[in-house]
Design brief:
binds N-(aminocarbonyl)-beta-alanine; binds zinc ion; alpha/beta; about 30% helix; globular; 8-stranded parallel β-sheet
């Protein structure tokens, strides 16, 4: 493979910011040196003067082409990983799904078949367990051996992915024995279903009621319960898509006790709110996801949690459904709107905007978006950092470019943008994945099949 040199940029990792030249050889970072201090020869040179050089983003929560809500997420691995690359993300960890009545093996094979040969960037899998039973528990060690070292359980969506407390406890015990990480969607699904039924009976059918019935207290209650179940099982716990400040308080309290409890939030909870869900003419459907968007006053608590490390990771929960024909399934009944938002392309930029606005530091940006997800899910230091030996997943980032997010210009396979018209400062200029140039100044050079499956080790925070 060619030698590539990136000169004159400010190299930012979770640990430091240093002006440096970066030499790439055979798909890996070979060396860093003070700018101009080495006479390195290279086949290709990128001048990053005035720019940042950051690790490629690691998005630890995506759902490419997942069947859900009577339809299927609209990004395939081909379109979704291409969009991720446009936004400076070079690794995704997607959720393979066990269908009820089927095996983990069948679900994982299905996901490998969807992804294999189609991804522009590297990818790994978590496993959604929707049917905890003896046979499934016996399958879990095999998956861990294959590098699928995290299992997601749902306290929500009865009849679909839902597990009861006994099932969750048993899966947590098994995961703990294996050194695997249990991920939980923490919402009290059965209670929510009662509130949905009551709301619909009152004629409350608009998208905004999705946010009202999925009460913050029911996220907090489930978060508390998940933490106690994890304590009983002796298991580490990762709570996905935290949106309510009351749920965050449960995580913070658990962490103050020294428990191995981790939390993730997503850009939609940091930048969007119930005001979006209340948009007229069914436009609110574009913002239906679970956990739901919360009133704006939850956002400050989430930002604080990101600063204080009560939340460690920002992922997208990318699960796009087109407005036409998919979100529209829920006209007249909000409970039939497929749950999920597009976002895999915008995470790095939105978090950089938070740097611009002074909410987080540059190093914390990289920690939340690259290093911490890589460590959390056993990919560090191959991914998530810039260091000799690491994969050359590198982004040259222009911190001064101004762009307006829009469905007209994004690359996700979805007919709307949740951030339509929002202007942000900062833009990805060049993306390398294992040393190969995927994107350069608006030219897409990636290809399906470049991305390979990443078997993961276990959580590196334990
Ligand atoms: O609304 C969401 N989050 N859809 C994807 C499935 C999930 O719960 O993560
Ligand atoms: Zn979920
Ligand atoms: Zn999800």
């Amino acid at each position: 493979m060619a030698r590539t040199l990136i000169t004159g940029g400010l190299v930012i990792t979770a640990a430091e910011e240093v002006p440096a030249d970066v030499l790439v050889e055979d798909g890996r970072v070979a060396a860093l040196a003070l700018p101009g201090s080495q006479r390195w020869s290279a086949d290709r040179v990128f001048d990053a003067s005035g720019k940042y050089v950051v690790p490629g983003g690691v998005d630890a929560h995506t759902h490419m082409e997942m069947p859900f809500g009577g339809t299927r997420a609209s990004d395939t691995f081909t379109t979704g990983t291409r969009a991720a690359a446009w936004g400076g993300t070079t690794t995704i960890v997607d959720f393979a799904v066990q269908s009820r009545g089927s095996s983990l093996r069948a679900g994982l094979d299905d996901w490998h078949a969807k992804a294999d040969g189609n991804c522009a960037i590297d990818y790994a899998f978590h496993m959604i367990v929707s049917d905890v039973n003896e046979a499934v528990l016996r399958e879990m060690p095999g998956l861990v051996g294959e590098g699928v070292t995290s299992f997601k359980l749902f306290m929500a969506y009865p009849g679909v992915f839902y597990s009861d407390d006994g099932q969750i406890l048993r899966a947590m015990q098994q995961a703990a024995d294996l050194g695997a990480l249990t991920m939980v969607h923490a919402e009290n699904g059965p209670a929510i279903d009662v509130l949905v039924e009551q709301a619909l009976a009152r004629g409350e059918t608009d998208p905004r009621y999705h946010g009202e019935v999925r009460r913050a207290l029911l996220e907090a209650e489930a978060t508390h319960r998940a933490i106690q179940l994890a304590r009983v099982a002796g298991a580490p716990l990762y709570v996905v898509h935290v949106s309510a400040r009351e749920a965050l308080a449960e995580l913070a309290a658990a962490r103050d006790l020294g428990l191995p409890v981790f939390g993730e939030t997503c850009p939609q909870y940091l930048f969007l709110s119930t005001d979006n869900l209340a948009e007229p003419d069914f436009e609110g459907a574009k913002y239906v996801c679970s956990t739901p968007l919360r009133p704006k006053d939850h956002q400050d608590a989430l930002w604080r949690g990101l600063r204080t490390d009560d939340l460690q990771v920002v992922s997208t929960d990318h699960c796009p459904f087109c407005f036409a024909g998919q979100k529209e399934l829920g006209r007249g009944d909000f409970s039939k709107i497929p749950n999920g938002l597009p976002g895999v392309e915008h995470r790095m930029d939105l978090l950089h905007q938070a740097v611009v606005e002074g909410r987080i530091s540059r190093r914390r940006w990289i920690e939340l978006a690259c290093a911490a997800p890589a460590r959390m899910f056993g990919l560090h230091p191959r991914k998530g950092t810039i260091a000799p030996g690491a994969d050359a997943d590198l982004v040259i980032y222009d911190p001064h470019a101004v762009q307006t997010l829009s469905a007209a210009t994004h690359h996700m396979n979805v007919d709307y943008s949740a951030y339509e018209g929002r202007t942000v400062t900062g833009r990805v200029e060049t993306v390398l994945s294992r040393g190969e140039v995927v994107l350069d100044r608006g030219d897409y050079l990636g290809r399906p099949g470049h991305g390979t499956f990443l078997p993961r080790s276990t959580c590196q925070y334990l």
